[in-house]
Amino acid sequence: MKQIFQSELLGEQYTLQTHPSGLRMYVFPKKMTSTYALLATDFGAVDNAPLCDGKLTVPDGVAHFLEHKLFSNEDGSDAFEHFSAYGADANAYTSHTRTVYLFSCTENFAAALGELIDFVTHPYFTAETVAKEQGIIAEEIRMCRDNPYDCCYYNMLEGLYEKHPVKTDICGSVSSIAGITPEVLYEVYRTYYQLSNMALVVCGDISPDAVFEIADKHLPRAAVDLPLPRRQTSEKPVAHRARIVASGQVAKPIFSIGIKDTAIPKDPFERLKRDEGMAILCEMLFSESGELYNTLFDEGLISPEFSADYALTRDFAFLQLSGEANDPDVVFERIKEYLAQKKAKGLSREDFERSRRIEYAEYIKSFDSTEEIANTLLSFVFEGVELFSYADVLMSIDLAFVEQLLLEVFDDTHYTLSVIVPKKEEK
Amino acid sequence: MEPLILPVGKYGKMIYIATDRFKSELLSLSYSVPLEGATAQKNAMVTALSRRGTVTYPTQACLNRHLDGMYSTAISTSNRRMGDMQTLSFTADFLGARYVGGGKGLLPEVISVLSELVRKPLLDENGNYIKMFVEGEKQVLRDAIRAAINNPRGYANAKARQLLCAGEPYGISLIGEEDTVDLLTPETLAARHRALQGEVAPLFAYVGSMPALEVVALLEQAFGDFGGEGAPYQCLVRAHEGDVKRAEVEMPLQQGKLSLGFRTDIAANDRLAPALLLVNEIYGGSPASKLFLNVREKKSLCYHCSASLDLYKGVLFANSGMRVANRTATEEAMLAEFYALQEGNISEVELDAAKKALANTYRGAFDNPGVLSRFYTGRVAANVFQTVDDWRERLMRVTRAEIAEAASRISLGAVFFLKGTEPSGEEEA
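Structure tokens for the assembled complex are given below, as produced in the milestone run.
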């Protein structure tokens, strides 16, 4: 059965059909030259629950490793080569919570979509190809270790979380990936790549029926229904550590302030509302138009690049404030003072309206790119909410809700400060 | 989406691309000046200072709040190389009229803000920049120069470029060196701003649905008397002569970064320019390239290994990151792939994949106003105008013999190695 979702505001619509294999397929027709398709599993770096009745410990970095390895085919070819033959631009990525395989093309869509489904649904691993990939990923890990921004980010997560696997590097470590074998990969694949745990999203100048027909030719007929182990990690609301300082190849200290949020609504719609409320609140508190940014910048305390990003998933949430400063401790104190003052005095309605209008404009602009539409739609699918409900959620948020978030999230005990200082200045 | 080129005022031009495909619109203003050591840093500063304060929006906060009120209109600035020229740009990205109440929408206000940024910086009573803004921006500039080491890959590429094009404008930093920052003053920068105002030929690009003549009329109201004849485009395109230049710098990193610099005498208007782009694509432009499939996938030497071409300058850089112990093996493997290409060792599969990848890229340009406007802005600035479709069709007609000929006119000129001195942390997996 097909379901059609429409937005009058945007003049857009998309269609959902669930295949007998369990795969949810979404098609968002869009008059663009490129068509963008992604096939994703609701499985990422945080999914490290033991498998095989607790007998198999999943090594850190396995989701990312699997993402790399799926591109190798049984005949010795690489899926990239096949996509190239169709003129399609393929890629993949692994995040904390999902793994996504994708391509964009301006011709040969049917062949490329077939290739996407075929290579993701036909795993092939040998000891030899796994060993070769360990060499490549080891270099990726070393590259990330040399990246001070990555190090600062992961140290911030280490400061926030005592146990939650979100603090583990998505790539794992050179020693953890050494424990990956074809058997581990097959077991992880069997568990998390069930088509009922996956979604196909296509956005471009193509009809939903055409996509469903192509996909049907490449998908198995029956659904597999295996348990999906998810580790439940309970975390205290307070940050695990107050401060982590390390050294790195930076000219000037960089910092990341983490603010842990453990009040995650179970209801997906409420989660979306919290996510949007936090986006508005961050715009009000930390944007380049705001008092805090401009005061810190004018006083020379921070460099121009200062950002606030809130991440909310079904089992972890945090806010990250990052930037560059000669003295990150001073900036941290000033931010805490500013937030305390805002909590005491309340927020301005004018700022609230301005920030909500910005979110509205950004939402509309995001429908100009097939890539952005497909990736946003996927996020909504895995979060369990309907894409076009965003506008209603945005309008349902009022100043009181945002003020409540301010009081709830910004608690001094939820904060951690991660700093990377230039190598010679390590204290 | 064929572009129109229309005059704006006495000295300006506009690239007009009519489309209602997007919910947002784009307007950019760019101008090019010769890239010179004496002025590059000042030009960068003048551009950065435009965001600090203007007559109507005397502080950055004030300007940002105004842009927020315009449905989150974003105006970004950029400072790029265009051949041996320095191109400074302002690009506005804003919601189309149908989402903001119709009529002419936000465009008149966007043009007004753009004009304010470019023409009316906040000055003191003597006509100089505000000292506090200048000192603040000088610190930002110093930090940016020093922060080159934060990005090892970018650092290695910049060093390879400097080595390859030493003594030429292309080798100059777009933001200058730290030792000249202290010499910048409100007076010298205001003088530079005045000089630019009278010299540069403005090039606008608009991607949106307002009729062309209405856009021109709005631009002429704000910029009709702006600028001058503009400096002619210049770019020295030549093959490398003499020995390969080599340099190495040590840094406390786990990996090494290798950057190989090649050059050619094939200019952007040369009949072999399309073949040159195919050389780059086959060598290291995609996951189907020789570098990716052979050096990364088969030899497992590195995670990233790719090549990029500056078509205007005729320089190509291949770079990768590897354990220091694998440096020689990686360099040899990367060069072996290049020499194989020069010898015409290009399979049908490689040629076909490269052409299809480029066809996909240029067809896809129509989906992105930024890509489209940058394509045409570059072509117009370098006097090699052609449409996206013309260019794509030329690429598709390139023969194997032309690729071999183009490759034979490329030679290695510089090798830069950023040597990591930290232990790799853990044993090889």
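The CA atoms of residues 127 and 182 of chain A lie 6 Å apart. Chain A touches chain B through 72 residues (CB under 8 Å). Further analysis is deferred to the final report.
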